[in-house]
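User: Fold this; tokens only.

Assistant: Input:
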Amino acid sequence: MKRQLLLGALAGAVPAQLSWAANDTVGSVAVLPDAMTLLVLFALLFGAIRLDVRRSQLTDRSAVWQVGAMISMTAGSVFATSTVLLGVARLDEPALALGAYGFVTGFLVVGGCGAVACALLMRSIDRHVEMGESAGSE
């Protein structure tokens, strides 16, 4: 669990830094200011989930979803909190509703990327298991 929290924190912190760097327009804040932030976010989530699943040697679908959810929720919390802090730092008069919107949007974007990463990873695991079963039956 500690490894999942650490991987999630890293998977959320790196894209958060990219988001801070790419948000260069004064008076506005974007959760995903460019496509690079989204691509890096997805790649890091996929890599973190894959690393933990392989290290734990998981093949059970529910266990893979659990790992993905833990890593994604941690990354989402870090990324969304960073988005709110960016709004507080960059906007002249940050509003509570705008901060809540930024947090929810950031969290849901990361959660969606994590769900897609889990689905792709489980598809890969299923293929690997099927290939192993068909090789063993010959």
